[in-house]
Amino acid sequence: MKAEAQRPSSKKMAHLTSSKINFKDVIINPANMKCSSLPLFSLRNQYSVNFHLSWLGFIVAFLSWFAFAPLIPDVIKEDLHLTPAQVGNSNVASLCATLIVRFIAGPMVDRFGPRKVMAGLLICGAIPSGLAGTAHTATGLYVVRFFIGILGGTFVACQAWTTAFFDKNVVGTANALAGGWGNAGGGITFIIMIALYDSLRSHGLTPHVAWRAAFAIVPVPCLLVIAIATLVFGTDHPAGRWSDRHKAIALAIKDKGPPSVSLENKGDSRKKDGSDDVQVTVSPVQALESELDFAVNEPVTWGLVAKVISRPLTWLPAFAYFTTFGYELAVDAYVAGILFNLYKSPTFGQTKAGYVASIFGILNIVTRPIGGYWGDLIYRRFGVPGKKYLLLFLGAAEGLLSVGLGLYIDNNKHPSLTIVIIFLTLIAIACEAANGVNFSLVPHCNPCSNGFMSGIVGGMGNFGGIVFAMIFRFEPTPLGKAFWISGIIVVVISLLLTIIRVPRI
User: Fold this and answer.
1) What DSSP element (H or E) covers 345?
2) How far apart are CA 220 and CA 224, in angstroms?
3) By the 8 A CB rule, do 297 and 164 touch?
């Protein structure tokens, strides 16, 4: 195999300051061996392979984690004879498990690396997914959904994995693409599970059997296939094994020049397919201006925990994610049921409510990556403070739109479905773009503890999901009340977070 490491031309150096992202070439920063481009349309380099495995692991987690949401308002509720309160309790049980696992997954990533943590979570989550059909009572449903909630921890591994492979000028876009495409699983799951359930019913299965069979047919095989692919094709770190992660920085600091790039040592996937026409550009060593330039994940200790949690900077993205991703989780869990109750008729049932609700999650394919791109774009001109204010602006916009939706529903006897969909779409754009901006900011906050930091922020997102789910659970009527209460909370928190200072670069 022929691989060439060369000095970049002025055209290839333009990516460092240009608003355009290089999606073709593999351009490596020798100071940390991270990729400062996004070569996503080729699988002949380890950066692309690991990027795609990261979001695939996250998206298949949704196939089980959110599989109950489209079916529970009607078929599962009737089959298990659930009350509305019990349906709400099962949603909270799922979020509680994810909250716990995300806090645990962060330190595990720092110690073992994101690849192994991702595969482990997918395998562990496949077990309760295969047992979903054993639930016959409300208590059984709580237990199954709690353990399936383990899969929500894959988000921490997903974001830490892309942060480990992509440099600061593109890390926001990389994280947002992986998170957004993965999060789209929340919407895709609605479509898949409803279509599969309807297909099984049309083939003669009873509702009692059909929803149980759906879990065994889709989520479990997908979880296991991606887990195996992660272990076989993924790599731990640009430097090679996770235990070798300190070598890249040590070499750059010692030599003060570009280290030789050994594709063999990095386990580059090009060795596997025998390609001989791939060029790798090693850019000149840039000044190590930001802590992010030379940060390496360190194992979590009690002293490190105390240091991280005592910094206000830790809680800026954490509470922001509480208001954006937490809100998104609650809406994903409840919006199908709200639409079903609001418009239930012979022409609007569980299937149509599920398809309309899927819009909120599917928009992640576009909205979250846009947020990450905006974060990278504004960073080039305004530094980290630009990311902070963009994040809080989008959070406040989400809150105001949620207040507007709630008031519209409560003040109209027959609210227009079209207007409700427009509101939900605008809320999704603001909310999900804010999530993308958030994880372009996270790498700048405690960068030597990126796994732990991702776990804190991800866990706070799930804590927000629990809080907002409780609002929807205990304020079910009028149907718009939970929206405007949640919106006010989001706006207030977003405004309070403006006082926390961030690094300049």
Assistant:
1) none
2) 6
3) yes
Residue 477: what pLDDT? 78
For 248-278, how does the pLDDT look when each residue is reduced to its tens digit (9 = 90+)? Answer: 665 555 554 444 333 333 334 333 343 444 4
Pick from 182, 160, 179, 48: nearest CA to 115 = 160
Instruction: Return the closest-CA partner of residue 334 out of 459, 118, 486.
Output: 486
Residues 419-428 have a mean pLDDT of 94
What is the SS3 assignment for 296?
Answer: coil
Spatial separation of the C-alpha atoms in residues 262 and 389, rounded to whole Å = 40
pLDDT at position 60, please? 94
Residue 36 contacts by C-beta under 8 Å, 6 or more apart in sequence? Answer: 15, 16, 27, 28, 29, 166, 167, 169, 170, 283
Give start and end residues of each alpha helix (H) in 166-263.
171-183, 185-202, 207-217, 219-233, 245-255
Q: What is the 3-state secondary structure (H, E, C) of 386-418?
A: HHHHHHHHHHHHHHHHHHHHHHHHHCCCCCCHH
Instruction: Find where tokens 């998206």 sit.
Output: 59
CA distance 108 to 459: 14
The closest alpha carbon to 475, from 21, 69, 84, 15, belongs to 84
CA separation for the pair 272, 174 (Å, rounded): 24
In this structure, are strands 26-29 and 4-6 parallel, antiparallel, or unpaired?
unpaired
Comparing 228-232, 285-289, 463-467, which segment has the lowest mean pLDDT?
Answer: 285-289
Record the pTM: 0.78
DSSP-based three-state secondary structure for 434: helix
The CA-based angle 225-230-232, given to 5 degrees, is 95
DSSP letter (8 states) at residue 81: T
Q: Report d(CA 340, CA 422) in Å as an integer.
A: 17
Q: Which of 184, 168, 145, 487 is closest to 326 using CA atoms? A: 487
Average pLDDT, the chain: 84
Greatest alpha-carbon pair distance for the chain in Å reads 73
The H or E element that residue 372 is part of is helix 364-410
pLDDT 10s digits, 90-110: 888 888 888 899 999 999 999
345 vs 233: CA distance, rounded Å: 49
pLDDT attached to residue 287 = 46
Query: How far is it, in rounded angstroms, from Cα 127 to Cα 144?
Result: 10
Distance CA 453, CA 308 (A): 8
Residue 125 confidence (pLDDT) above 90: yes
- Distance between CA atoms of residues 317 and 360, nearest Å: 22
Q: From residue 343, how far is each of 70, 75, 349, 407 by CA, in Å? A: 16, 17, 8, 17
Spatial separation of the C-alpha atoms in residues 160 and 454, rounded to whole Å: 7
Closest residue by Cα to residue 80 from 214, 208, 210, 197:
208
Give the SS3 label for residue 286.
coil
